[in-house]
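Priority: low. Protein: SprT-like family protein. Input follows.
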Amino acid sequence: MSVSVLEKFLPENALPYLKIWFGSYPCHLKITKNRNSKLGDYRKLPDKSHQITVNGTLEPQLFFFVLTHELAHLIAFEKYGRRISPHGAEWKQTFREMLLESLTVYAEDLRPIIQKFSKSPKANFMASPDLVKYFHVPDEDELLYLENLIVGDVFVLENKVFVIEETTKKRYLCRNLKSGLKYKVNILARVKKMDNHYEK
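Result:
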């Protein structure tokens, strides 16, 4: 895929950065349908070329952010060799430099969040509450972040009903009301709160 084809998925002024970053590296770039499990993916192929996939349904700024994340893998592997850790120090440094280099591509209210994130880039987008909240605009279904609920609150996630039993900093211990099984759920999961409340 030509880099120029990406333009319709990108925020304004992003394309010049991608042309520099892709350079002459052999890379297969695929735009995919929405995937709930991941926003993007990078693979080093056996023939020493690279493959990057990004969800085509992402908002332009998030698309560019995810593509930058995946491209940082490509550039780090090319620069430091194949033995580096996928999300190790070399990748973090590469990703940090790319984010700061392209900071003006992002909206003014997003730039401080990107700058903060770049100080210690995370492997998982969900590990950055500020970014998750910025890109997840409340919708008509009245979905809430799990962190907005308390112990005893009942909620629906992926068509299953749970009750919160314990709260921690990053994950809540929740019990499936039908099976009785307990799960640790990320506090940034988007859930629908039910009216009933359970007391221990």
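The longest helix spans residues 60-80. The chain has a mean pLDDT of 89.
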